[in-house]
Design a protein that fits this description.
Strand content: 5-15%
Strand order of the largest sheet: 2-1-3-4-5
Helix content: 25-40%
Distance between the termini: 28 Å
Number of strands: 5
Number of helices: 5
Order of helices and strands: HEHEHHEHEE
Structural class: alpha/beta
């Protein structure tokens, strides 16, 4: 069974972050009570919507969810955008989506950048639900 080009690209990019040494198993002390892990949400949104991203992050945090915010752009990081930097930032974004239980798109005016569209497609390939923030007290699911 052959992988599609997109799957091979995803695997190549994800491979940048796979550790070469397996992690050491961690034994949990028996006297500690560790609660179940909360849902993890990856927010997708342009830096121009920083206020909306903060509002959504606050809302999701108050709902007891772990929030993964977008990776800052090369411009906002103050680094030159080389092909390598672009690939590394994209790999971080894809890893962030892969870690999430679901994706929440923040697009107040409906604008979705090419990067966000690619990440939404990536989330769909990974079977992550994608929702759009509806600017009320909840998000509307696409799935």
């Amino acid at each position: 069974m052959t992988n599609s080009t997109e799957e091979r690209e995803d695997q190549a990019i994800t491979g940048l972050f796979e550790p070469s040494i397996p992690p050491v198993p961690h034994q949990q002390p028996s006297h500690l009570h560790i609660p179940p892990r909360p849902p993890i949400v990856a927010l997708l949104g342009d830096e121009n919507y920083a206020e909306a991203l903060r509002d959504a992050a606050k809302d999701r945090t108050l709902r007891h969810e772990l929030v993964l915010l977008p990776v800052p752009s090369a411009r906002s990081l103050g680094v030159d955008l080389t092909a390598e930097t672009d690939r590394e930032l994209l790999a971080l974004e894809m890893a962030r989506v892969a870690m999430a239980h679901y994706v929440l798109v923040i697009a107040p005016d409906g604008f979705v950048s090419p990067l966000q569209a690619a990440l939404i497609s990536h989330a769909s390939r990974l079977h992550r639900p994608v929702s759009w923030w509806d600017w009320s007290d909840r998000a509307v699911s696409l799935d």
